[in-house]
Design goal:
Layout (H helix, E strand, L loop, with lengths): L7 E3 L9 E5 L6 E4 L5 E3 L2 H6 L13 H19 L7 E5 L5 H10 L2 E5 L3 H9 L4 E3 L2 H6 L5 E7 L8 H8 L3 E12 L4 H6 L12 E2 L2 H10 L2 E9 L5 H5 L1 H17 L21 H10 L4 H4 L13 E8 L11
Helix pairs in contact: 2-3, 6-8
Length: about 325
Amino acid sequence: MSKDVGTVFSRSCEVCEGTSSRYISMPAGPYVRCLKCGFIWLENSQDRARSRGGGDYTASEDRMRKNQKLADDYWQKLYPYLSQLKPGSLFVELGGGYGFFSALLRNRLSLTAILIEPGDTGRDYASEVLKLRTYRSVEEARTAGLSHADMIFSGHVWEHVSHAVNFVRESVPLLKDQGLWCALTPNADSWKLQYAGKCWCWLSSDHPQILSPRSARFALNKSQLKVIAIKETIPASVHYPGVLIGLFSWLKERFKKEKLSRGHFTLSSQTSDQPKRKVGRLPWVRYFFCCLQSVALLERFGFYQIDRRFGTDEFLAVGKRKGCPADPSASS
C-alpha cells in the first residue's frame, strides 16, 4: 500500500473507531489522520512505544525554567474552573514535571495539591524542595488510596502518551462525583498544521499522537466524563523556542554544508601543511533563531482567524465525572 501524502486507506481509529484515514507528511515518521474525528497518531507502533509517554517521560533540569513559566500560563487558562474550588479541595496534576503549578495552587488557593510524575528528577524536586505529596503513577496513587479528587489536570501531557483514551480512563477513578478532569494539549486542527505541514512544531517523535477538539470529545465521553468545555487557547510563548530548535538546527546545517562545498570552512581532509581556513561561527544564525521564535506571536496577532475552518495551536478540554448521558455533540 502506498504511503504517499494524502493517500486514503482503511485504518481503525482508537478514539472514535472510524475506519477512514489518510497519511500526512511529517519528518518523525508516517503519521495518520482519522478523517472522522481528526485524531493524528504515529503509525509505527514501535515508535509509539519508544515515545516519552505512558510513564516513560522524565523531567530534566533544563526544563525547570519552562515548567516555572508554564505555571502562570496554566493558572490564567484554568482560573474559571479553579475559582470554583474551595480551600482544602483535592487537586491532582498528571505529569506536572517539577510541580510548580501544583505548588502555586497550594499557595494561592490553599488546595491540597498532589503531583503524579513518572520522572525521577521532577518528582524528587517536588517532594524535597516544594514539599508536595507525589506519586510515580496513577496506579501507585490508587493503590495508596488516593480518590475523591475535586480536579485532575494535565498540561501538555496528553500528546506524550501512547493511548489517548486509556490516559483519561485510568485517571477518572481518582475523581469524585462532579469532579473535573482538565487538559491543555496541542490542537490537531491547528491552522499552522494545515498550512505549515511538516514544519508544524508539535508533530515529532516525542509526540506519538495529537488530539483535535473532536477527538477529545470522544475520549472524554468514552471515559464516563460529560464534556463541559472545549476551548481553543493560545500556547505560552515558552513552548516555541524548544519545539522550533529542530527546524533552526536544520537550517543551520544546510548553511554549513553549503559553505563547506564552497571551501569557506576548514575541511577535515586538509593536511597539516595546508593553510587552515577560518571556521565561521555563523552569528547571524543565532540572530535569525531569536527572530523566528516570535512565530509564537502569530496567533496573538490573530492570524489564525484568516481561515476559521482551523484553530489555534492549543485547546483546553474540560470534562465532569457524572452519571449522565454522553455529550451528543461527540457523535455528530
